[in-house]
Amino acid sequence: MWKVIIRRLLIMIPQLFILSVMVFMLAKMMPGDPFGGLIGPNTDPKQIEALREAAGLNDPWWQQYINWIQNAFHGDFGMSYTMKQPVTTLIGSRMVNTFWLSLLAMILTYLLAIPMAISAARREGSWWDRVLLIYNSVTFGIPAYVVYLLFIFIFGFTLGWFPTGGTVSPSATGFFPVLMSKIYHMILPAVTMALLGTTAIFTYLRSGILDEQGQDYVKTARAKGVTENRVFSRHILRNALLPIAANFGFVITGLLGGAIFAETIFGYPGLGQLFITAITSRDYSVITALILFNGLLALFGAMLSDIIMAIVDPRIRIE
Amino acid sequence: MVGDDLLNANKVTVSFLIDGEWQTGIYDVDLDIAHGEVLALVGESGSGKSTFATSVIGLHNPNQTKVTGSITLDGKELIDLPDEEQNKIRGEKIGMVFQDPLAALNPLMKIGQQIQEALDIHDVYQKDQYYDRVIELLNDVGIVNPQRTANQYPHELSGGMRQRVIIALAIANDPDLIIADEPTTALDTTIQAQILDVLLEIRDRKDTGILLITHDLGVVAEVADSVAVMYAGQIVEKAPVQELFENPLHPYTRSLLRSNPKAEQADDELYVIPGTVPALSEMDHHKDLFLQRVPWMQDQADEDISDDLVEAKPQHFVRGNAWKTFEFQDEKG
Amino acid sequence: MADEILRLEGLKVHYPIRSGFWNRVTDNVKAVDGVDLNLKQGETLGLVGESGSGKSTLGKVIVGLEDMTEGDLIYQNEDLNSAAERRRVKYNKDVQMIFQDSLSSLNPRKTIYEIIAEPIRNFDPMDPVDEDKRVRELLDIVGLPQRTVFQYPFQFSGGQRQRIGIARALATNPRLIVADEPVSALDLSVQAQVLNFMKKIQKELGISYLFISHDLGVVRHMTDNIAVMHHGRLVEKGTREDIFENPQHIYTKRLLAAIPSVNVSERAENRARRKQIEQEFDDRFNEFYDGEGMPLPLVQLSETHYAALPKQSEKE
Predict the structure, then answer these.
(1) Where does the secretion signal sit in this chain (chain B) (predicted)?
(2) Cα(B302)–Cα(B288) distance, rounded to whole angstroms?
(3) pLDDT-derived band of residue A31, with 50, 70 and 90 as boundaries?
């Protein structure tokens, strides 16, 4: 088991290298440089050139790459020009917001999708199954932002049940009131995201259960005299959950990536919103850092999924 | 060796709900198995032999299947038993062995856990005996290193080993009856012989009755005490094994035996049974359905015959009247 | 003496096993490990052995579904080891395969017409009228009604599907057909039909068969010569009579003893003999197999009969 994990970690070394090179090249291809914005009619081009030289922008590309990687290792991604803050600080504060919102949304998604899938599969072909199938294809099909806008209009502006932006109410003080206020701010975006996010898990699990139900080992279990409930929980469900478990690695790292539409529409200051802001204001250093960050998350997600799979499925474990 | 009656099936009829209509899959089956007896139920795919087994152990889907008649095990009626009682019978009184040993084991559970689950459900063995019993069972089915095997997953075992494990599962609680549905079809000939040996050893030791479902006449001849031949959902012939192979009566049994490749006539053309099995919806179980496939027996094919088999010789039962006059075409004068 | 159509010399198929921390190739699975075999025009050669013996791999190498690691494949006196050479002599047109599982080997979304026409289009394109004629002719040969030509595989019974598989294999007028367990999935009555049919077209068209099966009863019925395979090597080969009447290798004896007999009166003797041979197999395994558990090289016993016997028995 440890061999599998360590080998999987080693595979990540070349992956990380390729990722960093790609992001670096992407950053280089973006038009302009950090000093382009400083150029005014009265600026002396020599002065800019000196700044460039000092910043190492005239070094050969591999030298620049090494510098960039070294800085990245130290958590230095430069300054955001539009927000005049270090990129790391900017991302750090947003990441916490995003993490909690995504975690809540993820928990709600699983809480919704798993019982939906189980109840649909156990009554395959019933009207309830059909309702859930329709629900999941509708939520998958409609553009999410339409629903976000609708919900924020209904529950935020019209009914006034939930706040329409921010992460915490300015009037809240003290640990407990702040916590409650934070949760209160997350509920509407998280619930909406969960309501729209069940399709993948629902579909995988429902069809997984239906497939597993017909397997011979289920017959064996029944022939042993195992009760129907136990057949379901110990045999069918465990096998049907395998693909869900495998997907969990991606889901959990995806938590940090941020939800671009939801955060933007619900006015929730997370990484998703930051990404949109950075793109619209061409804040390249932030964009580069966020792309690198999301790339890292994807690599870690894949690794985590492989490791989870090796833990839950004995057929994948390699001696 | 063969003792008192263990299983009595009386006028068992099974219908399936297909496209909103009930269609008869097996009709009026009478079968008895004694303690310690190996009864082979022989037939081709679609003959209903597996359906019968499923009805005995109650594994059919009750919404789409209707079983009528009577199936008793040691006098206890099994048809329409409530779920809890059904679960007590399964695995404790009746053990089941399936055809495909890899598919029949849960890929995520260790062998030991899977056998232990069978012990855990029933009250035959106590918790502190479980591990010893698992090892004992694996030993009984001829697994050389039971401690190691108990700790392995199904995919780590060979096909023959897996089938031994399935048998160990089936006999975990010392059942009175084992239903083995094509237990050796997926296995190599050398392994097949060993698996059949294991089943017979269990029978000899525990006086277990065995319902052996197979299409392989060789397997029947090697292990069965008596044979029932099934065609289109009905028993067409029933006899002690030697009697059946030496004096087959029903045209279907005779055709089947004749189409089996034989050593003595290796270069001859094999006998081909003409026609095909009728569809479920076209089966009129009051006639001798096999005769529909025999072009030279058409004068008898429409004749209504009795539901009951005729005892043509002592212990040798046959369906209909065609056996009295049937001849293969090349035998006719 | 009929002409030789195919000869295999020292054929090996090895799969690398990777293990250890760096996943290096540490060993090989010797699926096929040095097989010599020849097949004459119009003959049926039976290849028997249990699952994992390498018999299916050997069949796949012959039709080109699997690459050999080493060895020579000589078809009609031409050494055809590369795909280019095979294309040149239209080897793939001449050598076809029939599979065990007729349902999964037929594309479920194609009609019978398309399935049978596909090899014709690949190897022998003709104008649509001729193609249609040829497909219908093939249906006739395998005894399927003309009206089935636009049906799909699932609409047929197992025996009919197997005949569609045969029609597809026959479409290119092959000289050699590799039949891998062609009747194992079929009921007895259907099996008889397919086997008779295979013999009939052999007589009419002069096809050679490599008949791969674990069912020795069927093999005895179908074949002229038999090769017995175990652990990737041949342990015995000879005429049908050599193998069935005078088996020399302990593994061949064991295979034969395991065939269930329909002779009920000799049941007890059969079992006793089988157990005795199983015992002998275990006891004498080291005599007949080398230190790695591989069968010994074949020794010629008569003009037709070869067996992998230890040196002493050779002298005896």
Answers:
(1) none
(2) 8
(3) low
Structure tokens at A303: 């690794």
A319 contacts C23? CB cut-off 8 A: no
In chain B, the number of structural domains is: 1
Q: Is the pLDDT of residue B333 over 70?
A: no
Q: Specify the CATH number for the domain of residue A207.
A: 1.10.3720.10
Quick one: pLDDT at residue B1?
46
A301 domain residue, yes or no: yes
* Residue C255 · residue C228 · CB < 8 Å: yes
CATH number of the domain at B275, please. 3.40.50.300
Same domain? For A247 and A301 the reply is: yes
Tokens representing A180 are 């409650």
Over the stretch C174-188, which tens digit does the pLDDT of each residue have? 999 999 988 887 788
ipTM of the complex: 0.85
* pLDDT at residue C1 in the model: 45
The H or E element that residue B42 is part of is strand B38-42
C152 pLDDT band, cuts 50/70/90, is confident
**What span, in angstroms and rounded, lies between the C-alpha atoms of C229 and C34?**
11
Residue A43 maps to a domain: yes
Question: What's residue B213's pLDDT?
Answer: 94
**Residues B141-172, buried b or exposed e (16+ Cβ, 10 A)?**
bbbeebeebbebbbebbebbbbbbbbbbbbbb
User: Of A18, A46, A73, which residue constitutes the final position of a domain?
Assistant: A73
Q: Based on the domain organization, do A112 and A38 belong to the same domain?
A: no
- For B260, the closest of C157, C188, C274 (CB atoms) is C188
Cross-chain residue pair A3–C23, CB shorter than 8 Å: no
Q: How much is the average pLDDT of B311-331? A: 88
**How far does Cα A160 stand from its chain's mean position?**
29
Mean pLDDT value across chain C? 87
CB under 8 Å to B80, separation ≥6 — which residues?
A: B67
Structural domain contains residue B307: yes
If you count them, how many residues does chain B have?
Answer: 333
What is the spatial distance between Cα B52 and Cα B58, in angstroms, rounded to a whole number? 10
Residues A69, A205: one domain?
Answer: no
From the list C215, C216, C260, which residue is nearest B221 (CB)? C260
Domain at C4-235: CATH code:
3.40.50.300
A1, A224, A226: best to mutate for the B interface, most B CBs within 10 A: A224
Chain-centre distance for alpha carbon B184: 12
Query: What is the domain extent for residue B279?
Result: 5-103+176-191+204-331
In a domain, B157, yes or no: no
Domain span at residue A43 reads: 2-73
Give contacts of C215 with chain B, Cβ < 8 Å: 189
Pair A176, A235 in one domain: yes
Put simply, whether C19 touches A (Cβ < 8 Å) is yes
Mean pLDDT across C41-57:
90
